């Protein structure tokens, strides 16, 4: 019932073409481009310096431990979406990883589950909607959050409001939530410093670069890394041979 | 946070796009029957690594040899045509030729800058899939050396008249030529549809 409701609501907006070929799909470019520039400015002013400072003062093993712990805290979201997508093996692996890493891994700081060969199966509701056949809709740059589309934005909101800590009521809940989101933000930005600096230097068009990277990497995540032959472009399309 | 909610896999691996470029030039470690395309990738990966690792060459000699290698294993004309996208249609021959030269020079300069940091990696060919006759995807795993985790890389190999060449490669779900097409067509669109403008920009980038 839940799944049907979502399809009814979202299909007219996004269409039923699940996982369209990664290609320019940007009818909202007149809004997206200025928002992208605003996000870049915000990143340059705040997030990048904070992330670089964090990287500078925090030893590698500590950053790894924090990253592991944050990944471990994703378990409820990963579990829910693996189940919704019908991925029994992913759901079981998520439960196993959470159990092992929370105990032997001391609250998720260490990742002994990986050493045991239990792979992570990260899923989010945007991917779930895609698996259910909901099209992505046009490219959309969110304020602060960056590259997205209507489907993934819906997924982002859904995952946020269904996360256990979101609806638990306890003293200091708001501060905990803000703290958690902040740590995630800094950790992920720190992990991307070299990559994004490389993009900034080598991109021929930074806006187009981010858009293409987002679309391609999301398509890959939705298909769990499996090659999508139908999505590959034809190199002969504009050839003159 | 605004750059963070995408590139989920790429962000997790420190070497990101650099590793993507790295995949062109690594040592093969499996010897098996495989397809012609698999053999092509296996053999040429060894040749590329040998050039990068050759300490008897000075910087200029290594660059020259490296560029010759690129010209041999990559179908630069096909890739240059592809990255122009719709602007390839009806482009004048000389304009395209200038663009192809500039694009090739730019790409080689990027690879050279990034790959000089690496050495000692190994590559294992794990299989291949035919998209259509003459268009195959070879799957490999690259490991050790400067990489902190094994990296899956796919190579798109085009075979015509018995000759195989690379036209694209993928890591972390991102195909390099597709990425470059997105950037170049956007640049051309922002410059009045001028392929010549893109040529000039690429020449400037390669010379920096």
The strand count of chain B comes to 6
In whole angstroms, how far apart are the ends of chain B? 31 Å
Mean of residue pLDDT values of chain A:
86
The assigned structural class of chain B equals alpha+beta
Total DSSP helices of chain B: 8
Mean pLDDT of chain B: 80
Identify the biggest protein-protein contact and residues per side.
Answer: A-B, 55 and 58 residues
Low-confidence stretches of chain A: 1-23
Let me know the largest β-sheet of chain B: 6 strands, mixed
Helix content of chain B: 40-55%
Strand content of chain A: under 5%
> How many helix segments of chain A?
12
Secondary-structure element pattern of chain B, one letter each: HHEHHHHEEEEEHH
Number of strands of chain A: 2
Which band does the percent of strand residues of chain B land in? 15-25%
Q: What structural category arises from helix and sheet content of chain A?
A: mainly alpha
Listing every helix as H and every strand as E from the N terminus to the C terminus, the arrangement of chain A reads HHHHHHHEEHHHHH
Protein described:
The complex is a heterodimer of chains A (241) and B (208). The longest helix of chain A has 29 residues. Chain A starts with a helix and ends in a 19-residue tail after the last helix. Chain A is mostly helical and 241 residues long. Chain A has 12 helices and 2 strands. In chain B, strand 2 and strand 3 form a beta hairpin. The radius of gyration of chain B is 17 Å and the shape is globular. The N terminus of chain B is likely disordered. Chains A and B meet through helix 2, strand 2, helix 10, helix 11 and helix 12 of A and helix 1, helix 2, helix 5, strand 3 and strand 4 of B.
Condensed summary:
Chain A has 241 residues and is mostly helical.
Main traits of this protein?
heterodimer, A: 241 residues, mainly alpha, two-stranded antiparallel ribbon, 2 strands, 65% helix, globular, disordered N terminus, B: 208 residues, alpha+beta, 6-stranded mixed β-sheet, 50% helix
